[in-house]
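The instructor's notes for this session suggest beginning with a concrete chain rather than abstract definitions. Hand out the sequence below and ask the class to guess, before any prediction is shown, which regions might be ordered.
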Amino acid sequence: MGELFIDEGDSLSEILTQTYEYYEFHLSANSIKKWVKNQKNSGPVGRGIDSFVIANAKSLLSVDFACMQDNDDVFTPLTITPSASTNSISFSLNGTVI
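After discussion, reveal the predicted structure:
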């Protein structure tokens, strides 16, 4: 499980107005799930998530396909970048936010 908090970092106004992004992630059974934890925010604060990295992922380094599913059941392939030197694996959407 992991959590991600994103704000513009300019002032406390995003905290007070609750316009920050806040997500929770779970990795289990070779699946990553993302939940929006701040329902009051109506959209991305910044660029969104360009990519994500799973650390300590030696067992996932041979993965050769990954995709994401949106709320409309549309599947989009992800770019996979494994790193044997750090035992980590990165996933991205080629410049599009995840």
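Then share the key points. The chain has two domains: 1-45, 49-98. The two ends are 18 Å apart (CA to CA).
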